[in-house]
């Protein structure tokens, strides 16, 4: 019996090692096969004009009673003594990971659970403002970012339509002279770029923007920023500008990220191949550069079940590489959700949670009408 058990253990080890080897050698092919839907895109009507008047379509919004994940504060963090006067619109990253549909239903339980966890770890960095809005939307599934199939574009357009409708509700619900912070991560940042091009650039809203935090998605200097009509943030107190970064531990293999970026088009419709993108340094609030771990005010370190978290200062440095990616040195132990190639995408915000919180506070204070 003991020998049989050892055979089972050995078999499991071999299978595990083979899986890790295959993922190392063929990460893009295996990831695509596991996540890209095989069926057709399912056309759906746009949400009704007043749909986002309902609390059920918001993960977080002012006045929401109890259980608001965006109000989470980790151990070691204190609520701002003076609430920020700016309203915040945050678009959460992809939490629908299934291959069943190209777009996740807003009532999908697993997607909602993952979204709440992500909002707790990401949008919470912006909760110094009492006016924090995080919409639910029919997000494109993760596999839509791994293929050039026309269904992927249709799925992303459907998701954007929901985000745009939610943004209209956000704008209608805030005073016309209130400053606004626009933020998103990953798919959220992808949609945020288009939102700014179509609904902010060249309008009175542009004057109200404190800053845009398009984190976890490459923002092209040549093909995105002109359409957004905003520059990259050069300094820690600059306003009406854009910040963005993509985090990698070292040694890094960013081939999947860079190839996906170069296959894409910018907001001007042109190829992104060879186009540099923003690398903001979240530890300094400036464009590019290097900062030591000593100036990291606190990384959000979750417990084993990600139910709670504590801030750990001085955990990781930040260095913008010549390739536009943000490097954090050797991989810290934050949990199991590191992508192939030492890609710390899921942790883009938690790595620098306290510095991002301070950055928002500083820019809101510097904003002038």
List the helices and strands and how they pair.
Layout (H helix, E strand, L loop, with lengths): L1 H24 L1 H9 L22 E3 L26 E5 L17 H13 L10 E4 L14 H23 L7 E6 L1 H13 L5 H4 E7 L9 H4 L13 E2 L3 E2 L6 H9 L16 E2 L4 E2 L2 E2 L7 E4 L6 E4 L5 E3 L5 E2 L25 H14 L3
Parallel strand pairs: 2-3, 2-4, 4-5, 5-6, 7-14
Antiparallel strand pairs: 1-3, 8-9, 10-13, 11-12, 13-14
Helix pairs in contact: 1-2, 4-5
Short note summarizing the structure:
This protein is α/β, with parallel strands linked by helices. Helices cover 31% and strands 13% of the residues.
How would you describe this protein?
The protein is α/β, with parallel strands linked by helices. The chain folds into two domains: 1-35; 38-366, no CATH class. The model is unreliable at 1-26 (pLDDT under 50). Strand 13 (318-320) and strand 14 form a beta hairpin. The strands form four sheets. It has a six-stranded mixed beta sheet, sandwiched between helices. Helices cover 31% and strands 13% of the residues.
Feature tags:
disordered N terminus, four-stranded mixed sheet, 369 residues, single chain, alpha/beta, six-stranded mixed sheet, 31% helix
